[in-house]
Amino acid sequence: MNEEPSGPAVDPRLLDLLVCPLSKGPLRYDRLRQELVSDQAGLAYPIRDGIPIMLVDEARPLEEGEGIPSSIRVD
Amino acid sequence: MVRAVFDSVAERYDLMNDLMSGGIHRLWKAALIDWLAPRPGRHYLDVAGGTGDIAMRILDRQPLVGRVTLIDINYQMLRVGRGKAINKGRLANLDWVTGDAMALPLPGNAVDAYTIAFGMRNVTHIERALAEAHRVLRPGGRFLCLEFSRVFLPVLDKLYDRYSFNVLPLLGRIVAQDAESYRYLAESIRRFPDQATYLGLVRAAGFRNVTYRNVSGGIAAIHSGWKI
């Protein structure tokens, strides 16, 4: 797939382990944007070069109406 | 502040540790691993894990551990560490995560042991980091913290003070081209609570059977506690 991001992939076991550091709620993996999205907190945490950045002050606030695309839900 | 300091020193961090402590930090870390006694199949969390020093030692001591998750607030340190791990062919069972000790991105009751070596001193609110440590540990889980502490030997304490405020920043300037960062380290060591005070904080976070051991006359101490 040419949508595949470059750099090392994130270990699926790690995705299973992590939660939102703010809400401690579940995260969904947005493979295309390389983000871990917390719908509860309304924040998207970036993944850089396979390393998740689970810091609130480096997360992207979700825009209004940025819903849960069912096609990429993993939880 | 902490993040900026460590961004600038990440590349030379390991070399600096050796020079600063005359290599003694290796013995302290070995003492931490001795006390931890890693066991097969268990999940270890190393917070403020930096370039993976403690994580590698856990894996070296017990290759059959289930997993080591390494969390550090500094992305650059993790990248340097992961690069080292790749060069050594050590990647399996190791997770690298940028995160804050005061807001861990892990669910409750997730790990069997929590270690933090020379990281608690850099946390803004120690109580919050300890509360998070307690939360993510499974019942029966172990907390171990290696940190600079109070020298209790009368002559050593004077020498040590002179060393940390004069020699340390000089070393920092020469080796890491950054005296300020190492002056910050010296000051943060002085601000950190002494052995007994810190033991009280660990206990107040809910840990039980809390004890500590001094290493090198109290230059550093290892605190241990259990989540019951």
From TrEMBL, chain A:
InterPro entries: Trm112-like. SUPFAM superfamilies: Trm112p-like (SSF158997). GO terms for cellular component: cytosol. It comes from the Bacteria. PANTHER family: PROTEIN PREY, MITOCHONDRIAL (PTHR33505:SF4), ZGC:162634 (PTHR33505). Belongs to the UPF0434 family. This is UPF0434 protein SAMN07250955_103290.
Automatic annotation (TrEMBL), chain B:
GO terms for biological process: aerobic respiration; menaquinone biosynthetic process; methylation. Its EC number is 2.1.1.163, 2.1.1.201. It catalyses: a 2-demethylmenaquinol + S-adenosyl-L-methionine = a menaquinol + S-adenosyl-L-homocysteine + H(+); a 2-methoxy-6-(all-trans-polyprenyl)benzene-1,4-diol + S-adenosyl-L-methionine = a 5-methoxy-2-methyl-3-(all-trans-polyprenyl)benzene-1,4-diol + S-adenosyl-L-homocysteine + H(+). CDD domains: AdoMet_MTases. The keyword Glycosyltransferase does not apply. Signal peptide: none annotated. The keyword Lipid biosynthesis does not apply. Pfam families: Ubie_methyltran. Keywords: Menaquinone biosynthesis, Methyltransferase, S-adenosyl-L-methionine, Transferase, Ubiquinone biosynthesis. PROSITE patterns: SAM_MT_UBIE, UBIE_1, UBIE_2. Belongs to the class I-like SAM-binding methyltransferase superfamily. MenG/UbiE family. This is Ubiquinone/menaquinone biosynthesis C-methyltransferase UbiE. The gene is ubiE.
